[in-house]
Amino acid sequence: MKILLMGDASNYHMTLAIGLRSFGHEVTVASGGSGWMRTGRDVDLSRPWDGKLGGALLWAKVRRLLPRLSGYDVVQIVSPNFLELRPHRIRHVFDELRTRNGAVFLTALGNDSRYVEFAGDPSRLRYSEWQVGGVPTRHAVEAAQTRREWLGEELRLHDNYIYSNIDGIGTALYEYHACCREMRDAPDLQYCGIPVDTDAVERTCCLDIPGKVRIFVGLQRGRMAEKGTDRMLAAAQEVVSRHPDKAELVVVENRPYDEYIELMTSSHVMLDQLYSYTPATNALLAMARGMTVLSGAEPEYYDFIGERDNHPIVNAIPDDETLRRQIEEVVMHPGRLPQVGAQGREFVMKHNDSRVVAERFMELWQRNLKC
Predict the structure, then answer these.
(1) Which end of the chain has fewer beta carbons closer than 10 Å to its terminal beta carbon, N or C?
(2) What is the per-residue pLDDT for 266?
(3) Is the pTM of this model over 0.90?
């Protein structure tokens, strides 16, 4: 098939393209490069500047490129907001993509109005970046205006339009799937997971028992409260201060994707995504390298993917004292790290290899292509 992956986040679509190409498909990734991450793409759709001028220049670029974004069997957009443009501009591009190509599908990845509402409801998720047990998080307080915008009429109408006019949804995380399941049923809803190019990622971490455990925390300065890395960093700092002979901290902030990955590989333990039920991209990449990961790994997630035996992720709990104990437990037992690292690599190979995820997308498309 000829496939267009439109938009990207944390290198998701670019990695998916690797898996799809291994099956002989012709794949084009058109994206803005995930912002400051500067991830790879075949067609550049980055916004040169913030503000009206940047939007006008991107809008002009997209209109010029539309003839090149034509004639594909499948278009997969990364979210309802797959371009850094106002909703009415995105809708115009979306309609053009539908007219110029075959079926159009959506990758449920990141925030949209439906997910923000879903994640903020404690009857649906026990916790998320917006609430823990119904109590607003620091992120919810600081981003109150952003939440109002997500739930406002403009974005609600836009997201509803996109969801009403796609041919199916591939979901990246358990949480997104649970949200989408409330509005879509099989065959046009498929859990796909997050792809990892395991051929390009060697297991280099924790082949032996380390003398001193290096704890890695990757920061996005503007998203620390959202990701929970503010609390994870504070807990790790306390553990390291208690056990300076046993642990040290590696903190990396807002680096380009390739540089970030390179810096990560010298560590043994990663802290990532406090408010998630599911391990996300950074955690999976770390596991593929043999690192032990504290991240989202709720029982609902393991049950959902059918994994009964291999549970290598330390399920980070959004409670500061519990989190500190979890990190300390890892630091005080470095002898466990090589075995957990091997189990983590095995887990990623089984559930998140780019070919495995590509096959799930192919199943979704084949069930719903209009032939």
Answers:
(1) C
(2) 85
(3) yes
Whether residue 78 contacts residue 13, with contact meaning beta carbons closer than 8 Å, is answered with yes
Tell me: the pLDDT tens digits for 35-45? 666 778 999 99
**pLDDT at residue 36, as a whole number:** 61
Q: Which amino acid is at 365?
A: W
C-alpha R_g of the chain: 20
Residue 233: per-residue pLDDT: 96
Cα–Cα distance for residue pair 346/368, rounded to 1 Å:
32
Cβ contact 294:270 at 8 Å: yes
Instruction: Flag residues of the chain having pLDDT under 70.
Output: 35-37, 184-187, 370-371
Confidence (pLDDT) at 264 = 84
Using alpha carbons only, what angle is made at residue 238 by residues 233 and 239, rounded to the nearest 5 degrees? 100
